[in-house]
Fold this protein.
Amino acid sequence: MAMAANILVVDDEKSIADLIEVYLKNENYNVLKFYNGRDALLCMEKESIDLAILDVMLPDINGFSICQQIREKHNFPVIMLTAKDEEIDKITGLTLGADDYITKPFRPLEMVARVKAQLRRFTKYNAAEPAPEENAIVFSGLALSKDKHECTLNEKPLSLTPTEFSILWVLASNRGRVVSSEELFHEVWGDKYFTNSNNTVMVHIRHLREKMQDSAERPKYIKTVWGVGYKIEG
Amino acid sequence: MAMAANILVVDDEKSIADLIEVYLKNENYNVLKFYNGRDALLCMEKESIDLAILDVMLPDINGFSICQQIREKHNFPVIMLTAKDEEIDKITGLTLGADDYITKPFRPLEMVARVKAQLRRFTKYNAAEPAPEENAIVFSGLALSKDKHECTLNEKPLSLTPTEFSILWVLASNRGRVVSSEELFHEVWGDKYFTNSNNTVMVHIRHLREKMQDSAERPKYIKTVWGVGYKIEG
DNA sequence: AAGCCGGCTTAAGACAATCTTAAGAATTTG
DNA sequence: CAAATTCTTAAGATTGTCTTAAGCCGGCTT
């Protein structure tokens, strides 16, 4: 089941932004709309974006500047919006990494078509690389290999029991996101059980932390979010 | 058995409106015909419309204006009718949200084809999937992520308790609107409780304001509207 | 201007989620 | 089959969070 693509729309002209939103939502895209650059940049950190539509002229930050920042940190296509007479900027915009540009005023249906084209192109190239099923997770000193069932932390091997490995795997593959102990339980043990004793999970977390030289009070890796669950940072 | 689609037709030229009606009825559509904008707008409130055909030039209200109002309140495709020489308006019409346009004079069968195309397109996309639940809210320096259960204000992280997070989430997702403490209570705690003690809500608001370096007397973010509730500005 | 009423503040006690520990049950291994 | 390892359960300790209540303050009304 494919998730609807998240599209970031940034334009200080509310009417334009709203128009784009209407059309994209009509195509069942998930639209994240902003009227200034700062909020948009903030949003990128929180959300996983699939495509961005940026106005060149923004009140706080130049659209090109945003585009550059996207290129540095992220990897999704960018479409720039530019007034018809800003001829020179076209080239500049493309040079700085935009994947396409649309001049205002534009026909909404054409805009939608271009968005689709970019998404198609992007997913096509990206469909090549990633293995259908993740087999290894590596980030910030932590490395997990599913088929080897091995784990190293800062090059030092950790000998984990099967359950511990599974828990860490679930946390790592959801890194950044808080996972409740109920969810963890179901991911690791399967849906067949219906115990309310998430205490079991807790004990394993405890063991994990011990082996990772982590602690509950000052967690370096597995953080507990009170009343919600556990999470491991990216 | 699929219900015949309701099609709203608005044109002050009676002959044109009648012509459209004849052809659409021939295709077994249910036609709601009006010769002015006001009656058409009224009708939309009463009836469930599937598609609208609007003339640009109307005696009382501009066709574009109607189109905008449809976009705000409803979610059905709009086809605009425009005289051949109104070249410039084509773009404007589309810009304001029309899904298609037909220039007069037109060939009735082409008109019918376009209606069918729009209905097909619309129902297809609407069958796709319901809009995914919002996961992040970002605006004017405030950023909330449900997944990460994190909150930042002007790039500075706020560590919120679960209840505080929920309250801020409700306020943020209703930004601009005043939310009464009763409503807040029900949104956050659920409908199972029936205490009238909105005092609890107040205390949490207090804590929130403290963490946001906000104050009741000179509120920057969470404003109290006397006798009504709380609100957070967009 | 005075008094009422709604909102604000504060802190302490109640409560609930998490942590820790250890022992016994289950499972795997030799 | 015995030993070792791993998993689960349970109970108490601990900590973070929520609620309650009482007094204060300030805007609204007469």
